[in-house]
Amino acid sequence: MYAIVRAGGRQEKVSVGDVLLVDKVNAQAGESVDLAALLLVDGESITSDADSLAKVKVTAEVVKAAKGPKIVIQKYKNKTGYKKRQGHRQPLTQVKITAIDA
Prior knowledge:
Elements: E1 2-7, E2 10-14, E3 19-23, E4 32-42, E5 45-47, H1 50-53, E6 57-67, E7 71-77, E8 82-88, E9 91-101
Antiparallel strand pairs: 1-2, 1-4, 3-9, 4-5, 4-6, 6-9, 7-8
């Protein structure tokens, strides 16, 4: 059994025991969070109806806070002496899928 869930603006395919990185969630390590299911595949049956998916509960446990890869932003204008360098690391949360209840 697996599900497609909405996790921070993206869609992820998850099954029980998967560990994935999602956008930052306001929860401490060890707490549990619920993810919105968009599709549920259970053997031969596929559930995509909104009313049926409202009953589906995908539970994940927060493992730890993490950061994404460093992204370097550089701006440069020729012949003017203007250059600017900036970096960014996206805050993420590592979660482990503990249950998919249909």
